[in-house]
TrEMBL record:
Listed GO MF terms: extracellular ligand-gated monoatomic ion channel activity; transmembrane signaling receptor activity
Subcellular location, record wording: Membrane
Signal peptide residue numbers: 1-18
Protein known as: Uncharacterized protein
Neurotransmitter-gated ion-channel ligand-binding domain location: 51-223
SUPFAM superfamilies according to UniProt: Neurotransmitter-gated ion-channel transmembrane pore, Nicotinic receptor ligand binding domain-like
Keywords, sorted A to Z: Ion channel, Ion transport, Membrane, Signal, Transmembrane, Transmembrane helix, Transport
Entry GO terms, CC: membrane
Spans traversing the lipid bilayer: 224-243, 255-273, 285-311
Coiled-coil ranges (or none): none
Presence of keyword ATP-binding: no
Length: 342
């Protein structure tokens, strides 16, 4: 009987020891993520240095960036670790791709980098970042304010050639466009049309080929504000100028009315000058529209001045002739008086 108890206790003890320890610490030790293991941090995670690391980049306009890459040294079987499939570790423990945005003009303080990296059972790793991205873009303002702009956001490795890092997208353009539209609350004067994604390769000055992932963002300006504030008022001023031809010229009100319209158009031109960039090579359509109406009203003012002068010219001639007769009569009287005195 005592022997049976001992066997039972040993069996229970064996069962207890055979159950795995369900903790992240056990997985941490298995992956060798210790402070002394600098191999996972300082080197690109490939077993053969000639192998290429695929880095997937996903971006939405809201400002969230997700980067995923394959790590050959971090893989495990979830069944051995209580079905743990995702493991978050500090970003200082593993290697992270050094990506750069070529058009970036943002302040470094606007980047909020996640302090953790997610490790997956199949060896993939990912991290996210929030960034208020300010990037440079060559604008074509020829059809302003009915213009459509196309801006590129180019991701590329800072030091690794395409032999080491190949950039690909973690989603398609339609999916990223729909996601970006769903998270944008206020778009202002711009409307997001679509986002296209394509990869490219460029050669550096050292003749090395680098991988590039280009997001092409297509935007359309909402022109209603400019139509109400500029186009319609300028057209209204032109109609008023044409209607001023029915004003009587006798009192000189027509000329003063036209000059007032000309000054009003000048104020709108000054406002438009502050809104348009001074580096534009070609004059935008709305600027040509304003200058054209300004020129028409200016010619109309000159026409009003000419008509006013022509209408007042006969009366002026009559006054001059009457004044001339009076002078001649006075001269003749003086001569007559002088003869009578003699």
């Amino acid at each position: 009987m005592a022997l049976l108890r001992i066997v039972t206790l040993l069996s229970l003890s064996g069962l207890c020891h055979s159950q795995p320890l369900c903790s992240y610490g056990r997985l941490w030790n298995f992956l060798n993520l210790t402070t002394s293991n600098s191999y996972l941090l300082n080197f690109r995670p490939v077993k053969n240095w000639t192998d290429q690391t695929e880095v997937k980049v996903e971006m939405i306009i809201y400002g969230i960036l997700k980067v995923s890459w394959k790590n050959d040294f971090i893989e495990w079987n979830p069944k051995d670790f209580c079905n743990i499939g995702v493991f978050s570790v500090p970003s200082s423990k593993v290697w992270i791709p050094d990506l750069d945005i070529q058009e970036d003009a943002s302040d470094s303080s606007s980047i909020q980098q996640s302090p953790f990296v997610n490790l997956y059972q199949d060896g993939w790793a990912s991290t996210t970042a929030r960034q208020l991205l300010t990037f440079t873009c060559q604008l074509d303002l020829n059809m302003y304010p009915f213009d459509r702009q196309q801006c590129n956001v180019t991701f590329s490795p800072m030091t690794s050639s395409v032999a080491a890092i190949l950039l690909t997208s973690d989603g398609n353009g339609t999916q990223i466009t729909n996601t970006s539209k769903s998270v944008i609350i206020t778009e202002g004067e711009w409307e997001l049309k679509n986002i296209r994604i394509h990869t490219d390769f460029r050669r550096n000055f050292d003749n090395e080929t680098y991988s590039e992932l280009i997001y092409t963002v297509n935007l359309t300006r909402r022109p209603m504000l400019y139509v109400i504030n500029f186009i319609v008022p300028l057209l209204y001023f032109l109609i008023l100028d044409l209607a001023s031809f029915f004003i009587n010229e006798a009192r000189g009100e027509k000329l003063s009315f036209k000059v007032t319209i000309l000054l009003s158009i000048s104020v709108l031109l000054l406002i438009l000058k502050d809104m348009l960039p001074s580096t534009e090579r070609h004059m935008p359509w709305i600027a040509k529209y304003c200058v054209g109406i300004f020129a028409l009203v200016g010619v109309s003012v000159l026409e009003a001045m000419a008509i006013s002068f022509l209408l007042s010219f006969p009366e002026k001639v009559k006054k001059d002739s009457a004044h001339r007769r009076i002078c001649e009569d006075e001269t003749q009287l003086e001569r007559t008086d002088s003869k009578g005195t003699i």
